[in-house]
């Protein structure tokens, strides 16, 4: 199982869990499996089947946009971080 790090803005959907262990062979499978447990989380990460522009996803510290995006392969014990962009000014 992979470990998904849940950012503060999404914890309201995950019963305030900071980490979730979940199965999936690719990022999209992990997101789909997360959404089956925590309905609505997928809509916070994806738009029209693609990562939202202000959401970054990392596997073991590597940005999936520079690997295979949502088809990035996941192995057991991989750490997935969902990082929404923060704007300030």
UniProtKB/TrEMBL annotation:
Short name of any one Pfam family annotated for the protein: ThiS
InterPro entries: Beta-grasp_dom_sf, MoaD_arc-typ, Mopterin_synth/thiamin_S_b, Sulfur_Carrier/Prot_Modifier, ThiS/MoaD-like
Annotated PANTHER family: SULFUR CARRIER PROTEIN CYSO, SULFUR CARRIER PROTEIN SLR0821-RELATED
NCBIfam families, sorted: moaD_arch
Name listed for the protein in its UniProt record: Molybdopterin synthase sulfur carrier subunit
Organism expressing this protein natively: marine metagenome
